[in-house]
Design a protein that fits this description.
The protein has 357 residues and is mainly β. It folds into 3 domains: 104 residues, Immunoglobulin-like, CATH 2.60.40.10; 115 residues, Immunoglobulin-like (Sandwich); 109 residues, Immunoglobulins (Immunoglobulin-like), CATH 2.60.40.10. It has 3 helices and 28 strands. Strand 18 and strand 19 form a beta hairpin. It is elongated. The termini are far apart. About 4% of the residues have low confidence.
Length: 357
């Protein structure tokens, strides 16, 4: 008899413990947003519930199936017979089309965990093509048709991605032939058969080690779209190539010194080429090499008369100026050397002239 009483008390205790639990009763566990737009921003919905148990509910966590969905909830206990809500925000940006996401709610309720679901359809931006892909090559849309690699060392390989989009109703065949780009540029990846209304990428590799040039280098890449190359449209790439100097060259650098840093041509006739030579000396401790002579003014050019100058040796540069406008001419030329020393690596020479008929 004593054993029966003990068993009865145990069963009664377990039953009371089971009864004395919080219970989360949801008003609904699924919400359909229907059609929503990307422009409208984050779409919110409140999942309402009631504590139909007889102990407070404590929500420990709520986990969404993707980073585009964010749940929030009341952190304080929800007392018996009281109601609360779990707010879910869905970010539709850059995610056009149908979506279906889940949120798993963990709590001390007897029916935990509870799975909530949101679904809907994100309407594609009407003007997203112009916003995301403002550039055109034929009918192909691009997010950019110009790449500026900035300052890059001559030992590097640079990679850049161009995002593309086919706005047409037909498949678009995209190619970049070797003959339509410099050898130091490689197309590592291209969405060559781009389906209608589909995004893709072009991944471009720029091997600076193979560029036989210095300072500002301008390059062009031409695309062939549906077997028709667009001659007038291209992807332009610029890079300012800098020399990577060794510890030895820094310890014993060459240094260029000009007899003067201004080229005065005096009175010269328009459209007639006038030449002027300037001397320079290597005042450094290792061989001096002039890498390049450049100018933003296309009417002037420079030719190194003697290069590879030993320490204390001298050389000269011949400049040719063919002015195209009357009046005073003020411009600059840049002499790029193999010196690691600032002020000697890129030397600026000023050019003055008075252009007459």
């Amino acid at each position: 008899m004593k054993k029966l009483v003990t068993v009865f008390i145990l069963i009664l205790s377990l039953s009371f413990a089971a009864y004395s639990q919080p219970k989360m009763t949801m008003k609904t566990t699924t919400h359909d947003y229907g059609n929503i737009t990307q422009e409208a921003g984050i779409a919110y919905y409140e999942f309402e519930f009631k504590n139909t148990g007889n102990k407070p509910i404590i929500i420990n966590n709520a986990e969404a199936s993707c980073g585009c969905t964010e749940p929030t909830w009341v952190k304080s206990p929800i007392l018996p017979n009281k109601s609360s809500k779990i707010t879910v925000g869905y970010d539709p940006n850059n995610s056009p089309g149908h979506f279906s996401k889940t949120i798993t709610v963990y709590s001390n309720a007897q029916n935990s965990p509870i799975e909530l679901k949101i679904l809907g359809n994100v309407v594609e931006k009407q003007n997203f093509v112009d916003e995301e892909f403002p550039k055109k090559i034929g009918e192909l849309r691009l997010d950019k048709n110009y790449l500026n690699l900035g300052n890059v060392e001559n030992t590097k390989v640079e990679r850049r991605t161009i995002n593309i989009y086919n706005p047409t109703s037909k498949k678009m065949n995209i190619k970049i032939k070797d003959s339509d780009k410099p050898a130091y540029i490689k197309i590592e990846q291209i969405s060559s058969n781009l389906a209608p209304k589909t995004k893709g990428t072009i991944v471009i590799s720029y091997n600076v080690q193979k560029v036989n040039d210095w300072d500002l280098v301008e390059s062009d890449v031409y695309l062939t779209i549906n077997n028709s190359k667009i001659k007038t449209e291209k992807i332009s790439i610029t890079a300012t190539i800098r020399e990577k100097f060794s510890a030895a060259s820094k310890a014993n650098p060459p240094k260029i010194q000009f007899t003067g840093k201004t080229l005065n041509f005096g009175n010269i006739k328009i459209s007639k080429t006038t030449s002027k030579e300037i001397q320079y000396k290597n005042i450094g401790t290792s061989e001096l090499i002039i890498r390049k002579i450049t100018s933003n003014d296309k009417t002037i050019s420079g030719q190194v008369i003697k290069n590879n100058i030993a320490p204390n040796g001298s050389g000269s540069i011949k400049f040719n100026l063919t002015p195209q406008k009357l009046g005073r001419l003020r411009t600059s030329v840049y002499v790029i050397t193999n010196s690691p020393v600032s002020g000697f690596n890129k030397v600026i020479l000023r050019v003055n002239a008075n252009v007459i008929k």
